[in-house]
Amino acid sequence: MALPTLPDIAFLHHLADIADAQTMPRYRTGLAVDTKFKEGYTFDPVTEADREAEIAIRAEISARYPDHAIVGEELGKTGSGPCCWVLDPVDGTRPFICGIPVWGTLIGFMIDGRAELGMMSQPFTGERFWADSDGAWSERVGKRERLATRNVGRLSQAILHTTSPEHYRGDIRQGFDRLAASVRMTRYGGECYAIAMLAAGRIDLAVEPSLQPYDIVALIPIIEKAGGVVTRLDGERAEAGGPVLVSATPDLHAEALRLLNGGA
């Protein structure tokens, strides 16, 4: 059976425009912040920007593709079938409420559980990062560039990123400490923007200990089309989330997985 046709990437840009119209007017304002339950977190913020952006994106997808499923951070799953949109209206709500522009809107598209298209929009900096069937791309102020990961060769020359150290415990904490001790530099707090920078050849490794599908699906095609590798720490594909490693090259990925999983 033939696979369904991929949506045109112009539609993902259209969805990003719709999200931007909801997030930007609320950014760096006196926005009320609520909290919701998320296992392992004492505070998981949500704002009107998160909710209204997802509502707006969902409405447009449902109007264009009424037979497609949608999974979103704020409103859960609707529909079924091989085609599924995966949405995080504000990935990085914490930096969003702090006024730090490393958040973004994530829009992913899967067929039969495999990520095929991805978009990350950062409207404050005016940047888009996306992947289509032709490659991975970035655009700012009308200038479009092809994304490509870099190859620094040795782990000792690599830059490692993670969002926050606070959710590392037990074996994964020990593994992260081994990896951090082996790289050139470790940085924190970049959220989805750091993954985009890995695709752009600025960062070499990113580890996240506990992702949901809406945190990673949109980013998988961007990394893979830029030449990188993204898997769970068990080596399986990352669409289901969990502990995830993103690497600029297959060699770095193999070495980092070894250290994360107990290698000396």
UniProtKB/TrEMBL annotation:
Recorded coiled-coil stretches: none
EC numbers for this chain: 3.1.3.15
PANTHER family found in the cross-reference section: INOSITOL MONOPHOSPHATASE, INOSITOL-1-MONOPHOSPHATASE-RELATED
Pfam families: Inositol_P
Family: Belongs to the inositol monophosphatase superfamily.
Keywords: Hydrolase
InterPro entries, A to Z: His_9_proposed (IPR011809), Inositol_monophosphatase-like (IPR000760)
Cross-referenced NCBIfam families: his_9_HisN
Cofactor or coenzyme needed: Mg(2+)
Name of the molecule in the record: Histidinol-phosphatase
GO MF entries: histidinol-phosphatase activity
